[in-house]
């Protein structure tokens, strides 16, 4: 099996697991209501680590199936309804219903920016639309563009599923349900936001975008087996969909070349707008590049398809002739379709008006080829047959599905190696976060002290050392500052973030050993200092935390000895003396593309008393 086949098999398995989990959650019981001040935006429940938000909206006009499909197939629109989203990009289109998406989250300082690589599939019938997303599992076969890269911390989406149930003859309400489990790597602990405050507002927001913006998004309906989709992107500002695709040369012996729809791409566009399309072709051979193509447009959908007549879309089909097998060249096509001027329902191709026929286009056979065939169909039928009702208290009642209920237990949080975070109580985790916040507040307060509060001690070879001028004689804090040219924030952070590297640039350090990965941002280290007569060797247990952004980074550590919070702390071994570090931290700031400012804060309780803290601070920065 090739690397690509193994990778796609792994992706299909992850998507199938997410769909099975959703199927189990839809009919399961045991949901606990989560109190939230959501202003009447539906109800929020929790089961284990999974949140479920539900809202019912009763309006005269509501978006139809095609509008919801267009919304989910254009992930770039997510910025319009999800305030945590900074950027969304489609990396790969696997079939008309399945895509690989990269999402960047902007959570605000001091939380690192997060990202996620997810595989999403949209399935639907006449009255129900389901969009299922889950993170791609890591694999040694994955391409480089799927790997994490700074400054983003890779988060894990266990499940994000939207279930939209349209009005029926017995109900005039649109019911939207969101199942959500996303491990944002402790992001919510660093801010006032939480799932209970962010999830309920997503439901009315996505409904509003579906009503107002979905008709501006063309829907890529299908493409033929001799067509390969290279890239798809949607510009929300221009309301422009760009599709890059390739028409493959015919096979030498003619197998697989015959049949309708072999070399075509089909889209659905809303008739309430005027549209303009630009189509260009290129190839290594001029003869192939100049092959003629045709565009057919029809006001009605293909025969046999169930369509909401009030929200019918214009079908636009681009048809290409065969590429000769002996041409040794494929045909590259770029299609850009966007909102244009003119009367609604009109279409222009490369600037020229194009007629839209009222006759129905010839139907195309359903292609057997596809990615992860059948995934999501069971969940769709389960939801369609179990619409559920919302009672006065806001809770949801639905038909139970005991055969798949046990799948809910398979959704678990990803925890780092070492002591699992789940073994700590919620109170212990909160206490750790309180310690970190307190130390970080102290650290940033010292950084913001005006220069007049710092008494100069020494300046040597570009390094300035000052001491905090405090009325408290017991508060002794040193600050060393230096500006570096030609190195980046991530160059400096790469060294500062690696505690064992201190052995190289801090001569008194003997070793540094990792005790525990506390979280994605924090680590517990045991740092040892050398002995020098008449001083015994010393060590310290420090909790080190790093906050990063593209132009700045803060790395700070402080001592801890609480065995209730950190049971893996080793005891001191004679003759080593355990010392206490009140604060030790670095702040890296980008002053200019070529300049980096690095203040270092320390305190006299560090075991730098062998030669004095001032000399050590100077030497540490000079060794950079």
Topology:
Elements: H1 3-26, E1 32-33, E2 43-47, E3 50-57, H2 65-73, H3 78-81, E4 85-95, E5 98-105, E6 114-124, E7 128-135, E8 153-154, E9 156-165, E10 174-183, H4 195-212, E11 219-223, E12 227-235, E13 240-247, E14 264-269, E15 275-282, H5 286-289, E16 294-298, E17 314-319, E18 331-339, E19 347-349, E20 352-354, H6 377-385, E21 389-390, E22 396-397, H7 426-447, E23 454-460, E24 463-468, E25 478-485, H8 489-496, H9 502-505, E26 509-517, E27 522-529, E28 538-549, E29 552-559, E30 577-578, E31 584-592, E32 595-602, H10 613-622
Parallel strand pairs: 6-8, 15-19, 28-30
Antiparallel strand pairs: 1-2, 2-3, 3-10, 4-5, 5-6, 6-7, 7-9, 9-10, 11-14, 12-13, 13-18, 14-17, 15-18, 16-17, 19-20, 21-22, 23-24, 24-25, 25-32, 26-27, 27-28, 28-29, 29-31, 31-32
Helix pairs in contact: 1-6
InterPro entries: START-like_dom_sf, START_lipid-bd_dom, START_lipid_transfer
Protein name: START domain-containing protein
GO molecular function, one term: lipid binding
What is the straight-line distance between the termini? 48 Å
Estimate the strand proportion.
25-35%
CATH architectural designation of the largest domain? 2-Layer Sandwich
Could you tell me the CATH topology label of the largest domain. Alpha-D-Glucose-1,6-Bisphosphate, Chain A, domain 4
**Overall pLDDT metric:** 81
Q: Assign the CATH class of the largest domain.
A: Alpha Beta
Overall 3D shape: elongated
Query: Rg from C-alpha positions?
Result: 30 Å
- The CATH superfamily of the largest domain is identified as START domain
Our count of domains comes out at 3
Low-pLDDT residue spans: 301-311, 387-422, 605-615
> Largest sheet at a glance?
10 strands, mixed
Oligomer: single chain
Going by helix content, strand content and strand pairing, the class is alpha+beta
Q: Helical content, roughly?
A: 10-25%
InterPro entries: START-like_dom_sf (IPR023393), START_lipid-bd_dom (IPR002913), START_lipid_transfer (IPR051213)
Organism: Thanatephorus cucumeris (strain AG1-IB / isolate 7/3/14)
GO cellular component, one term: cytoplasm
GO molecular function, one term: lipid binding
């Amino acid at each position: 099996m090739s690397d690509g086949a193994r990778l796609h098999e792994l992706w299909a398995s992850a998507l199938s697991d997410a769909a099975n989990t959703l199927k189990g959650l839809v009919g399961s019981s045991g949901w606990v209501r989560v109190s939230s001040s959501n202003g009447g935006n539906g109800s929020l429940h929790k089961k284990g680590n999974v949140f479920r938000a539900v809202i019912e909206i009763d309006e005269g006009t509501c978006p139809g199936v095609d509008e919801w499909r267009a919304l989910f197939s254009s992930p770039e629109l997510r910025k319009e309804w999800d305030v945590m989203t900074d950027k969304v990009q489609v990396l790969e289109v696997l079939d008309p219903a399945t895509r690989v998406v990269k999402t960047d989250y902007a959570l605000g300082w001091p939380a690192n920016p997060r990202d996620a690589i997810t595989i999403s599939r949209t399935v639907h019938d006449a009255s129900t639309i389901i969009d299922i997303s889950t993170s791609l599992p890591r694999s040694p076969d994955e391409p480089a563009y799927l790997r994490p890269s700074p400054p983003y911390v890779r988060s894990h989406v266990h499940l994000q599923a939207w279930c939209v149930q349209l009005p029926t003859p017995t109900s005039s309400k649109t019911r939207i349900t969101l199942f959500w489990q996303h491990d944002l790597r402790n992001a919510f602990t660093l801010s006032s936001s939480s799932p209970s405050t962010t999830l309920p507002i997503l439901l009315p927001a996505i409904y509003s975008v579906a009503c107002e913006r979905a008709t501006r998004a063309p829907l890529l309906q299908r493409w033929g087996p001799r067509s390969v989709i290279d890239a798809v992107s949607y510009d929300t500002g221009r309301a422009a969909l760009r599709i890059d695709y390739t028409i493959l040369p015919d096979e030498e012996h003619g197998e697989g070349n015959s049949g309708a729809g072999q070399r075509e791409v089909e889209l659905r566009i809303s008739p309430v707008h005027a549209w303009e399309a630009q189509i260009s072709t290129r190839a290594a051979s001029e003869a192939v590049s100049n092959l003629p193509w045709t565009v057919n447009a029809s006001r009605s959908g293909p025969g046999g398809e169930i369509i909401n007549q009030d929200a019918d879309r214009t079908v636009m089909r681009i048809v290409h002739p065969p590429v000769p097998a002996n041409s040794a060249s494929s045909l590259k096509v770029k299609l850009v379709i966007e909102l244009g001027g003119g009367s609604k329902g009109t279409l222009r191709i490369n600037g020229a008006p194009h007629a839209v026929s009222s006759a129905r286009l010839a139907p195309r056979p359903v292609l057997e080829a596809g990615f992860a065939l059948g995934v999501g169909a069971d969940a769709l039928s389960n939801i369609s047959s179990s619409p559920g009702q919302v009672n006065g208290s806001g809770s949801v009642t639905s038909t139970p599905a005991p055969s798949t209920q046990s799948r809910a237990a398979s959704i678990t949080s990803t925890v780092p190696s070492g002591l699992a975070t789940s073994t700590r109580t919620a109170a212990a985790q909160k206490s750790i976060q309180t310690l970190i916040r307190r130390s970080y507040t102290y650290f940033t307060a010292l950084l913001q002290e005006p220069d007049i509060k710092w008494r100069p001690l020494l300046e040597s070879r570009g390094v300035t050392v000052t001491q905090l001028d405090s009325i408290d004689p017991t508060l002794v804090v040193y600050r060393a500052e230096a500006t570096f040219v030609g190195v980046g924030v991530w160059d400096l952070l790469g060294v500062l973030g690696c505690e064992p590297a201190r052995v190289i640039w801090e001569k008194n350090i003997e070793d540094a050993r990792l005790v525990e990965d506390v979280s994605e941002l924090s680590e517990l280290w045991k740092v040892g200092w050398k002995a020098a007569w008449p001083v015994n060797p010393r060590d310290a247990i420090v909790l080190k935390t790093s906050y990063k952004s593209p132009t700045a980074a803060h790395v700070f550590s402080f001592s801890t000895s609480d065995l209730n919070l950190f049971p893996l702390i080793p005891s001191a071994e004679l003759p080593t003396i355990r010392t206490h570090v009140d604060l030790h931290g670095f702040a890296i700031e980008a002053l200019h593309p070529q300049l980096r400012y690095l203040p270092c804060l320390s305190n006299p309780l560090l075991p730098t008393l062998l030669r004095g803290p001032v000399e050590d601070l100077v030497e540490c920065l000079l060794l950079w």
